[in-house]
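Ticket #4471: structure output looks truncated?

Reporter: J.K.
Steps to reproduce: submitted the chain below (93 residues) through the standard prediction queue, then opened the result file.
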Amino acid sequence: MTTIFNKTLKVPDDIMFQELSNGEIVFLNLDNETYYGLDSAGTIFWKELTNTADIKTAYDNLLEIFDVTPTKLKKDLDILLEELKSNGIITLS
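Returned output as attached by the reporter:
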């Protein structure tokens, strides 16, 4: 597998988030005072990424949840992680 699975995810202390009743999540970056949001599918990704030990475990769980090919899931996960990282919502190490 690629290097993404060797990384760990951390949510910085200056990020606040709340799940809404419609299954979406909103984030507030206190550092730059910017709001971001995830739709219901993104919320499922978020929960797996933040409630599992590592990105590889989250990926394996997401493969069981979504009816997609491993390649498509990897691509979608890469895109989401890059967006979250570029907006300061997560750090990867």
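Triage note (M.O.): checked the attachment and the full token line is present. Residues 21 and 40 are 10 Å apart (CA to CA).
Status: closed, working as intended.
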